[in-house]
Write a structure and sequence with these properties.
By secondary structure, this protein is an alpha/beta fold. It has 15 helices and seven strands. Helix 1 runs antiparallel to helix 4, helix 2 crosses helix 3 and helix 7 packs across helix 8. About 0% of the residues have low confidence. It holds the Pfam family HTH_38. This is IS30 family transposase.
Length: about 325
């Protein structure tokens, strides 16, 4: 059955039954709604007055006004062409809804939009017709309800936070500290993707293709690729909190590599691999037929990236800098 929002008659009925001290379960049964719908309605539209607390309560007409206002805000991206175009442009650039909303506020724009409104638009009919969800960092087809989301604290525990990472890693003082990410391509290219890794001190890049995004496949492939590097040259890898990295615990026993994780929605905390991705997009645009790329093709792209002189390396190439560091390990 299609979802329909509560109407003013139902909201007035909820008000009357609350005043009669009836339970949420009884109210839900009376108006033919699920008890969670009624509970959420009361919590969302409860009126609070700090100065006159005895006025606190649920009022049907007020609740209807609140709901109408929320719908109007959700429609802001439908009504305002320039705002909608700006938001879509930034989504395609890889910005999260939080970053877009925050930037609008920072720039002092008179017309703003909240990140929740952007999410609602992305997962609404207009956003789905444009397939905007694929540009989101977490790239879900549908937005999970808040109550069904599982905390990621167990998947990415606090002791693996980037804030617990040793300070010398931040300063690029030691060799063998990497950053990792996943490059996603247009849906027409299927499930194939490219994992990107960069060594922080030398900017040496490694790219390899995956045939799907499952965490088991990705981590097994990553360990297979990184095993070719001497263990002292693969001390740690810093990732974002994408679900594709949730099998990170395999790294330590598998190849002796620690895993660290950025804060949610903070890609700048792994700026080296973000920069690598931008460089690699010259050869691997979003519409590239990545499934057809062989290992030799990927190596050719890496050779180009690693053979380009870098100012931050004193105009050495990443390959030269990487080899120098390997020589020190002998």
């Amino acid at each position: 059955m299609a979802h329909t929002e509560l109407n003013v008659r139902e909201r007035r009925r909820i008000e009357d039954m609350l005043n009669a001290k009836m339970s949420v379960g009884e109210i839900a049964a009376d108006i033919g709604r699920h008890r969670s719908t009624v509970y959420r309605e009361i919590k969302r539209n409860y009126y609070h007055d700090e100065e006159i607390p005895y006025l606190n309560g649920y009022y049907g007409l007020n609740a209807q006004d609140y709901a109408t206002d929320r719908r109007a805000r959700r429609r802001k991206l439908v009504r305002l062409d320039e705002l909608r175009k700006a938001v879509i442009t930034q989504l395609k650039e890889g910005w999260s809804p939080e970053q877009i909303a925050g930037r609008l506020k920072f720039e002092g724009q008179t017309i703003r939009v909240s990140h929740e409104t952007i999410y609602a638009y992305v997962y609404g009919p207009d956003g789905q017709s444009r397939e905007l969800a694929r540009y989101l960092p977490n790239r879900r087809k549908k937005r999970r309800p808040h109550h069904s989301r599982k905390p990621r604290g167990l998947v990415f525990p606090p002791d693996r936070s980037i804030h617990e990472r040793p300070d010398y890693v931040d300063g690029r003082e030691t060799f063998g500290e990497w950053e990792g990410d996943l490059m996603i391509f247009e849906r027409a290219q299927g499930k194939a993707n490219v994992a990107s890794l960069v060594e922080r001190k030398t900017r040496f890049a490694v790219l390899f293709r995956n045939n799907d995004r499952s965490t088991t496949h990705l981590m097994n492939r990553l360990m297979s690729v990184m095993e070719r590097v001497p263990q002292p040259a693969r001390k740690s890898i810093t990732f974002d909190r994408g679900i594709e990295f949730r099998n990170w615990r395999k790294l330590k026993p598998g190849i002796g590599t620690e895993a660290w994780f950025c804060d949610p929605q903070a890609p700048w905390q792994k700026g080296s691999v973000e920069n690598l991705n931008k460089r690699a997009r010259r050869y691997l645009p979003r519409d590239a037929p990545v499934a057809a790329f062989s290992d030799r093709d990927m190596k050719s792209i890496c050779d180009r990236l690693n053979g380009t002189p870098r100012k931050c390396l004193g105009w050495r190439t990443p390959t030269e800098a990487f080899r120098e560091e390997l020589m020190k390990l002998r």
